[in-house]
Specification:
This protein is 29% helix and 22% strand. Strand 12 and strand 13 form a beta hairpin.
């Protein structure tokens, strides 16, 4: 089966994760998808194929080296798709020999992906693209990664003359809601290092990511009839707005790029009596990350001094940290990828991730885990697309990385 055939087979299976769910994985569809991947892996000839109670799917490409004693490589992708856009009833469309013009995704709804808004399209003139019908996401994040890993696995299993040690394969649930590593059993996985295949265009190589935290803020007001509220009412919604007004304008995500961090208001709801805000805090630099958290605490302290202790209750929880410090002692992982890219005439694009991956947390759990591109763009929305030739190149990258 080709990587395209696998990809088209996977994306029509709905596996959206649910941030409001109390189960793990958060949706049953991920368990079912994992079961189907298990069967496919067994049919291909992988061994030790399992799915545990949490939905993690593991398997092994057997070593072709007798009595292998070396380090063990792992390849990891996630099974869920983002809840930011619908992942149900995905109807992929294939554009062969793309002409470089605007793409009409849905004539009836007049949904068009323009080259003005998405200039990355121009680099794929003459190649084949998989796009959406404009009504759902595509699911390249991260079913392109799964398709590439299993296509590489199939090739290696069909070519036992290629010298390699055992290759561990792992597919995880709930990455899109930040829980993909919660129950990942690193010891059971049994690899010494791994790559997450969960990036953007082919050639991406990422081993830096944000330090990340979430902030939860409760605002307590005092509700008085508006007719007699003078000098008495404290409106919790206005407290939340006042708090937000103190956040640095330049540190909003819409004003940042590259390694610049941000403080992002994700939600605000409430009434006069009570309001609640949720923020995410991000920065590649740990000291700047710490300063952002301290800044928010000072803002809360100021408002409590102004309106009374307990008016503002701030709780900050760290989510994950920059994997760079865990990868640098194993920099051969980066050098190996660069060598493979050069061999395959792929331009390396080494860049920081303005987000996080399973690999960030796994790196702090004892499994150094840089991130590789999959050939996709515009994830989490209806303008997502994947280049077929890029997916094929990514398969070649994985095969080369597996060679001893």
């Amino acid at each position: 089966m080709t990587v395209l055939e696998r990809f088209l087979k996977y994306v029509v299976i709905e596996t959206t994760s649910d941030p409001c769910s109390e189960s793990f994985p958060s949706t049953k569809s991920q368990l079912n998808f994992g079961l189907s991947l298990m069967e496919e892996m067994k049919e291909l000839g992988l061994i030790d194929v399992t799915q545990d109670e949490y939905g993690y799917v593991f398997g092994t490409i057997p070593s072709t080296i007798p009595n292998y004693k070396g380090k063990i490589l792992g390849l990891i992708s996630h099974m869920d798709t983002a809840f930011a856009a619908s992942g149900a009833n995905v109807k992929p469309q294939i554009l062969k020999n793309y002409d470089g013009k605007d793409i009409v995704l849905n004539p009836e709804k007049k949904i068009v992906m323009t080259t003005e808004n998405f200039p990355s399209l121009k680099q794929y003139i003459g190649q084949d693209l998989v796009v959406t019908n404009g009504l759902t996401l595509l699911g390249g994040d991260d079913k392109a990664g799964i398709a590439e890993i299993l296509t590489a696995a199939e090739y290696l299993l069909q070519h036992p003359e290629i010298s390699h040690g055992p290759i561990r394969i792992g597919f995880t649930p709930d990455e899109e809601i930040g829980k993909g590593s919660d129950y990942f059993d690193v010891k059971k996985f049994g690899a010494d290092f791994a790559y997450t295949v969960d990036g953007g265009e082919c050639g991406e190589l990422e081993y830096e990511n944000f330090n990340a935290a979430s902030a939860f803020i409760d605002f307590t007001g005092l509700s008085i009839h508006p007719g007699s509220a003078k000098d008495k009412m404290i409106n919790a919604l206005l407290l939340a707005m006042e708090f937000q007004s103190m956040m640095p304008e330049a540190q909003k995500p819409e004003h940042t790029e590259g390694r610049e961090g941000f403080i992002h208001l994700e939600s605000l709801e409430g009434s006069v009596e009570h309001a609640a805000s949720e923020y995410i805090i991000r920065d590649h630099d740990f000291d700047l990350f710490k300063q952002k958290k301290e800044y928010m605490q000072r803002a809360a302290d100021y408002m409590n001094a102004k309106y009374g202790e307990g008016t503002v209750i701030l709780r900050i929880e760290d989510s994950y940290y920059n994997m760079k410090q865990q990868i640098e002692p194993h920099y051969f992982l980066i050098e190996n990828v660069i060598k493979v890219y050069e061999k395959l005439d792929i331009q390396p694009k080494i860049q920081p991730i303005r987000g996080g991956t399973d690999g960030a947390r796994l790196s702090f759990m004892g499994l150094p885990c840089p991130n590789l591109g999959t050939g996709g763009h515009n994830f989490h929305g209806p303008f997502e697309y994947v280049c077929v030739q890029s997916m094929e190149k990514c398969v070649q990258v994985l095969i080369e990385l597996c060679k001893e």
